[in-house]
Amino acid sequence: MIDVAYVALGSNLGDRQGHLAAARAALAALPQTRVVGISSVEETEPLNGLEQPWYLNQMVALETSLTPQELLAALQSIEARQGRERRARWASRTLDLDIVCFQQQSVHEPGLQVPHPGLTNRPFWQRELAELRRGNE
Hints:
The protein is α+β, with helices and mostly antiparallel strands.
């Protein structure tokens, strides 16, 4: 099944622009996948009022036949290659990649919720998603 996945990119450590660029290139190189849209980059405050550097955020639309689970594994591999260390929840990170939603699929299992439960609480995701959907009309 081919579907469109919307993937959020975020970085607040190191070369933030460089991390986003590396993520976009890695996403474009995924098997059975092609990039069909890229949102603008925006700078946002850390969630939950945490004292940490601001984030650069962006969203990418991927046409893919990867399953949500396969896509999640690929995203975590890309994060690791960019130096992501999984420490405390909400900790600063070189790269964070989240499946925000799919056009046709949803998943509710341990470790993977699609649509992402944070979608309603993150106005920047909503703006980026709307930008991508407008571009695909």
